[in-house]
Automatic annotation (TrEMBL):
This is Galactofuranosylgalactofuranosylrhamnosyl-N-acetylglucosaminyl-diphospho-decaprenol beta-1,5/1,6-galactofuranosyltransferase. It comes from Corynebacterium felinum. Residues 6-145 form the Galactofuranosyltransferase GlfT2 N-terminal domain. It is an enzyme of class 2 (transferase). Pathway: Cell wall biogenesis; cell wall polysaccharide biosynthesis. InterPro entries: GlfT2_C, GlfT2_N, Nucleotide-diphossugar_trans. Belongs to the glycosyltransferase 2 family. Keywords: Coiled coil, Glycosyltransferase, Transferase. Residues 599-626 form a coiled coil. GO terms for molecular function: glycosyltransferase activity. The lineage of its organism: Bacteria, Bacillati, Actinomycetota, Actinomycetes, Mycobacteriales.
Length: 647
């Protein structure tokens, strides 16, 4: 039975605050005492207590198992010392609770075999416990009734079943403490450590994990299983490509021939059990699939930031999958929260979390790729950062290997809302790589993409983000140069883009707005978001006002004395389009930039952009042909070997 474990019962680390505990267990408000534990898989519960495990890490996402796995049923097994009643429940698509089965157990094991039939479109299963005496649950978990069976490949042949073995890859760039912490987390759980064949860490920075306290002990723990590769800054795609290159190669890092390769970011906190869960899913899948971990918010750890993403085929931009809600707070809205009667449609609750969410790809903050998939479809594209994970997921899907973003498998990562990556140097890679992937994956017209780009350009100009528009111009130019240069500019694009940004004041970070004179004020400029029932009308009015102001010459006095100091949430087009100079705090709150309106510069940037848009539309079909023809070489081991051999 234990060899067929799908999901362990799991408890939070000792000392976790209440909001984080809510990811693991919910104790009734009527309980007189709290449950206690000394390890993460057994719990002592006082008599007269009720606990529910309808929680993110302990409920069983049955609809996902029904959709993707070989299983028709699963087994819940709970080992109890003392006397307690165990009740098993399931949810429907809308979160409605339905009792399945229950029994009283005294010093024994409660075991339930549960059908997956009712979970076609959504639903979880979970268990609750009511104690008659002091009780210790020594072990619990969800199990398969049989061992993994062979998997069906897209061509109808069979592979596997494969052993529970994985190579973990963690690229790192100037985050030595984070990288060491990731190694320590993997080593901290004996069950997780036991399935790891190798740990591959490409180090692309100037601050090395090897110089960090704890590194030597972590490396000693993994011994010959640990492999570090120092290389130039090739970005995320270069780091992840090195991991795949070595894992599939004939060197020491690939000697174990692991059937699965697990990608993880270095700047994360991982729930180690996620490794075991991803392996179980990958092994029990009907056909090989990519298994993605979800993203919890590292700064608000009870918040689920991302639970599934797709690429919108209209404008070829990534977005949340249908029914996904960013930044869901489980402490405020546990899985049991169905909302209240009479709530507005957009009122926060957890109903949509009971749906199965289907995705196009998963971010490489955590993603498990079967070896058979990597061997067939090749390496990541040389994109430096952004879109490499999306393209790989789309490519895998084209070959018949879908991606599933799985609830209960997760890492903690800084939320996107705490980064400026849509307007800083990364904006170049966002746009260039979006166009590259669109050329390879998008079969429709480019009109929707160009409309989206034009809208973004206008918003950037209204927000006085001239450096962003300037590097997006470079992005379009570099895309139109074709695919032959991608490897050549892998290391040089970032320095070139950084140099361009230095020419614009909105890219120069100052320590504090206090270094500048006190703002003169912004009469009539809206600060809060424009919402409510009349939002479209209000936005149209403010857009007209903003455009009228933006088409007038700026008052140069406001380039020396700002009119306002805006927080990031206030720095919107409807506020910035009405000023000639203002500071905006960076997303991380560590500094400000002084944005200054320049009509001539804005006109020139807009003209360059529109001219490029016309050229892009005229040549996109030809470029699409070029990029698709080059794709096999761009993702080949031979091409990447030249990069790695030159490092």
């Amino acid at each position: 039975m234990k060899d067929n474990q799908l999901q362990r019962f799991l408890l939070p680390h000792l000392g976790e605050p209440h909001d984080v505990r809510m990811l693991y267990l919910i104790e009734s408000e009527l309980n007189k005492e709290r449950a206690t534990w000394t390890d993460r898989t057994s719990i002592s519960i006082p008599a007269g207590s009720e606990l529910s495990f309808l929680t993110y890490f302990n409920a069983f996402p049955a609809s996902y198992w029904r959709r993707w796995s070989q299983l028709d049923s699963v087994i819940l097994r709970v080992e109890v010392h003392g006397t307690a009643r165990i009740d098993v429940y399931r949810s429907k698509l809308d979160g409605a609770r339905i009792g399945i089965e229950g029994k009283v157990v005294t010093d024994g094991v409660a075991e339930f075999e549960l059908s997956l039939a009712p979970f076609e479109v959504g639903g979880w299963m979970w268990w609750e416990i009511t104690t008659e005496t002091d009780v210790t649950v020594t072990e619990a978990g969800w199990y398969a009734p049989h061992a993994p069976k062979p998997q069906i490949m897209p061509d109808g042949t069979e592979v596997g079943p494969f052993p529970a073995r994985v190579t973990v890859g963690i690229p790192t760039f100037n985050r030595p403490a984070d990288a060491v912490a990731a190694l320590e987390a993997l080593a901290s759980d004996p069950a997780v450590d036991a399935v790891i064949d190798a740990v591959i860490m490409p180090d692309q920075g100037t601050k090395h994990p090897a110089d960090e306290p704890g590194y030597e002990d972590a490396v000693a723990h993994f011994g010959k299983r640990f492999h570090e590769f120092r290389q130039g800054n090739l970005g995320g795609s270069g780091g992840y490509s090195r991991i795949m290159y070595e894992a599939l190669g004939d060197g020491a890092a690939g000697a174990a021939k692991s059937p699965y390769i697990l990608y993880m970011d270095d700047d994360i906190a991982i729930e180690p059990d996620s490794v075991l869960r991803a392996l179980a899913i990958a092994r029990y899948a009907k056909s090989p699939i990519l298994v993605g971990g979800q993203m919890l918010n590292l700064q608000e750890r009870s918040h689920l930031h991302s639970m599934g993403e797709v690429v919108n085929r209209g404008d070829f931009m990534w977005t949340a999958a249908p029914h996904v809600h960013y930044d869901h707070d489980f402490a405020a809205h546990p899985l049991s929260d169905r909302g209240k009667f009479g709530d507005k449609p957009d009122a926060p609750n957890s109903r949509d979390l009971h749906r199965r969410i289907d995705v196009d790809y998963n971010g490489w903050w955590m993603c498990m790729i079967p070896r058979v998939v990597a061997e067939e479809i090749g390496q990541p594209l040389p994109l430096f950062i952004k879109w490499d994970d999306a393209e790989y997921g789309l490519r895998a899907g084209q070959h018949g290997y879908p991606t599933a973003t799985w609830p209960g498998i997760a890492i903690w990562h800084m939320a996107w809302s705490d980064k400026d990556d849509a307007i800083d140097w990364q904006a170049y890679f966002h746009l260039r790589n979006r166009l590259i992937v669109a050329a390879m994956q998008h079969d429709g017209e480019i009109d929707g993409i160009i409309r989206s780009m034009l809208k973004a350009t206008v918003k950037h100009l209204l927000c006085l983000e001239y450096s962003t528009v300037a590097i997006q111009i470079e992005a379009i130019k570099d895309f139109m140069k074709g695919p032959d240069q991608l490897f050549d500019i892998l290391e040089t694009s970032l320095p070139r883009i950084a140099a361009i940004r230095k020419e614009y004041p909105d890219a120069v970070i100052l320590p504090s707005a206090a270094e500048l004179p006190r703002p003169t004020g912004t009469p009539g400029v809206p600060i809060k978001d424009i919402g409510g029932r009349l939002a479209p009308v209000k936005k149209a009015v403010w857009l007209a006002k903003g455009l009228k102001h933006s088409l007038r010459p700026a008052n140069p006095a406001h380039h020396d004395v700002p009119q306002a100091n805006f927080a990031p949430i206030e720095a919107r087009w409807f506020s910035l389009s009405r000023v000639d100079g203002a500071t905006v705090a960076t997303a991380d709150g560590r500094g400000v930039v002084y944005r200054k309106r320049d009509l001539d510069k804005a006109k020139d940037l807009f003209k360059q952009t529109r001219d490029l848009h016309k050229e892009l539309k005229a040549n996109f079909d030809q470029l699409r042909t070029q990029y698709r023809a080059a794709h096999p070489d761009l993702v080949s081991r031979e091409a990447w070997s030249k990069v790695f051999d030159s490092e």
